Structure formats: structure tokens, C-alpha cells
Automatic annotation (TrEMBL):
Upper taxonomic lineage: Bacteria, Bacillati, Actinomycetota, Actinomycetes, Pseudonocardiales
Domain Response regulatory: 3-119
Modified residues (4-aspartylphosphate): D54
Pfam entry (one): GerE
Entry annotated with the keyword Metal-binding: no
Identification of the protein by name: DNA-binding response regulator
UniProt xrefs under PROSITE patterns: HTH_LUXR_2 (PS50043), RESPONSE_REGULATORY (PS50110)
SUPFAM superfamilies: C-terminal effector domain of the bipartite response regulators, CheY-like
HTH luxR-type domain boundaries: 133-199
Any single GO BP term: phosphorelay signal transduction system
GO molecular function ontology, one term from the record: DNA binding
ATP-binding recorded as keyword: no
Amino acid sequence: MIRVLVAEDMHIVRGALVALLRLEPDIEVVSEVASGDEILAAARTSRTQVAVIDIDLPGKDGLTAATELHEQLPEVRTLILTSLGRPGTLRRALAAKVNGFLLKDAPAEKLANAVRGVAAGRRMVDGDLALAAWDTVDCPLTPREIDVLRLTAEGRDTLEVAAKAFLSTGTVRNYLTTIVSKLNARNRVDAIRIAKESGWI
């Protein structure tokens, strides 16, 4: 039996995923969580083999949680679920060392097959999405610039971003100016839109 943890914050979606997986004779759902902060502890106590993780979770996001699992429980395989089939999102997932990446609108049988695949040590990624990711331009922003833009996208003002990122307000403004320039954006709102559509934040 493959021991699976399901991490999804939307109760109906989580219930559907669990119900689908429980139909499979070789898969056992051993844990269900609703936030990224719960994943590591739940995986440890339930002896999870495969963690099926929604990319957009409250607390730690799915990729951060997957990275944490990879570092602290390397025997746990990770399968990321997302409704955002953007090449940039896939590239971020692969950089986080996830073992599989599946769109939420994929046919139900693909989920069980993806769980089996990652459990067996294979990397399971949608073929069309992988080709699209291969053809896309790398993110031109540095990790620090991405952090600043992500904090700004959360609705924080310059003072709040500076406090959260341990930077001066002048440095935050400089970063935002550089980001707008690098992305050929009209302003910071446009830069956020471009980065989100590309899957960089």
C-alpha cells in the first residue's frame, strides 16, 4: 500500500481527492491537512510515502512545504497539484525538487497514476506543460527581487515590505524600480501582473 498525505485547504476539493484515492486498492490516505504549516509534522507521524500538495495553501505555500519535506524527510515523495498550468509555476516546482506536477483539471485516473509513479521514483509531469516550460524564458528577477515583489503583491506598503524583508525603505523602492524596468512593466501593479502570469510569484 502507498501511504498518502493530502494537503488541500478547500474542504470540498480535499474530500473529493481523498475519495478518489480511496477507490484505489493500492493507495491508503493516512493524513489530511488544510495548511502548509501542518504538512511536515503530519507526514512524519503518519509515515507518509507520497504527499499530494496543493500549490496555494495558507501558511506555508505548497512549494515551500515541498522543499521542507525534501530537506527533512527525503524519503517522502511530493506531487504538486495546481489550477495554474503556467510554465513558470512548473519551473518553480522543479526547482523545489518536487517529484510530480499535476493540473487539478486532469482526469481522475491521472491522479492515482501520478501517485504510483512518484512512489516508484519516477518524475511525473504533464507532457505539454513540460514542453512549454522548456521553451519559456527564465525569470529575469533575482530571488531578493522576487521576495520584494511577492510581499508587494500581498498588498503591503513600502514600510511593511522593508520591515518584513529586513531592508531599508529606500532599498525596497530601488528594488521595485529595477523590477519594473526588468519586466518592461508600466508600474509595479503591471509588474505584479506580469510576474503572476509567468508563474514567477
